[in-house]
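Postdoc handover notes: sequence design on the structure in folder B. Input tokens:
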């Protein structure tokens, strides 16, 4: 009767032992998921892409057995939805309140400028940008204030939807790992 090969006692791994790579993939996947969750709220980080990359890394780490290609596909569709909400939320919010194209551009400029001012800048930057650009186009303060409010409402509602979709994506991934 033939005995199975045992790993050497000196700490060396047997040929074909892929545990270090698997652990690395899990760690990279978890890091990408955490960075993706942060990126859903912080505009400078590509949150949806990192969430999908994290799902792919976790699936790869466990050989696409529990987290299948279908699950990664569902995560990719959710990531695409997050990205689309990100693009459309501020514009739709500003448009819903009657803002012009200038206000929409101002909202984007305000968002970029707000990145340098921390969380208050990220939240208020789009509204201030929309207000300033709308007022520069037409010096009607009431209309400009309405455009800024629309950009703010769009940003807040869009952020809430993005966070919710992000947690759905992570939940789908965790369910696939557990079930």
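Designed sequence:
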């Amino acid at each position: 009767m033939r005995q199975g090969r045992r790993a050497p006692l000196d700490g060396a791994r047997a040929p074909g032992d892929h545990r270090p790579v698997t652990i690395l993939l899990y760690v990279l996947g978890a890091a990408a998921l955490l960075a993706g969750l942060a990126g859903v709220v912080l505009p400078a980080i590509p949150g949806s892409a990192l969430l999908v990359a994290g799902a792919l890394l976790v699936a790869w780490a466990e050989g696409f057995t529990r987290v299948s290609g279908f699950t990664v596909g569902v995560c990719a569709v959710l990531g695409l939805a997050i990205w689309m909400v990100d693009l459309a939320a501020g514009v739709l919010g500003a448009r819903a309140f009657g803002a012009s194209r200038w206000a929409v551009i101002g909202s984007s400029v305000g968002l970029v400028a707000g990145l340098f001012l921390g969380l208050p800048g990220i939240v208020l930057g789009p509204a201030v940008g929309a207000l300033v650009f709308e007022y520069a186009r037409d010096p009607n303060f009431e209309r400009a204030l309405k455009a800024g409010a629309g950009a703010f409402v769009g940003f807040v509602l869009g952020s809430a939807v993005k966070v919710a979709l992000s947690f759905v994506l992570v939940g789908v991934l965790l369910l696939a790992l557990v079930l």
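Context for whoever picks this up: The mean pLDDT is 87. Don't rerun without checking with the PI first.
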